[in-house]
Amino acid sequence: MYYNTNGETGIRLSSSWIAAAKQDELILRLFILQPNATFTPDEINEACNRCNRIWPITSIRRAINTLTKHGNLTKTNELRKGKYGKNTHTWKFITQVRTDINDTDTLGQGGDGF
Questions:
Q1: pLDDT tens-digit profile of 57-85?
Q2: Cβ count near 91 (within 10 Å)
Q3: Domains in the chain and their CATH numbers?
């Protein structure tokens, strides 16, 4: 999700929405590939850089926040040293759980999905 805090319009706004969606998708895929691992925003940023996606850390944090709001990720109590030596929280992928008799996937912690 793109938060239009700078009042973009027209093609610029459309491009920003598309770029944010692609960024969210890549970051979610990084979590899905290692569903039991936890990551700091700095670690996700490094992984994106290895995929030739050079994004500002603020964009990485925005994507993690959006994915958390959608119920795809959860913030953990685990802390690790971040890029500047400060303790940083980690996030983890929320695996899907079966909750009804129709065998339908629903997100582990609710939300509107992604």
A1: 999 999 999 999 999 999 999 999 988 89
A2: 24
A3: 10-106 (1.10.10.10)
CA-only gyration radius of the chain, Å: 15
* pTM > 0.70: yes or no: no
Amino acid in position 114: F
Nearest to 53 by CA among 84, 18, 19: 19
Tokens of 52: 């030739």
- Cα separation, 107 vs 18, whole angstroms: 24
DSSP letters for 17-47: HHHHHHHHHHHHHHHHHSTT-EE-HHHHHHH
User: In whole angstroms, what is the distance from residue 79 CA to residue 71 CA?
Assistant: 21
Cα–Cα dist 109/68, whole Å: 10
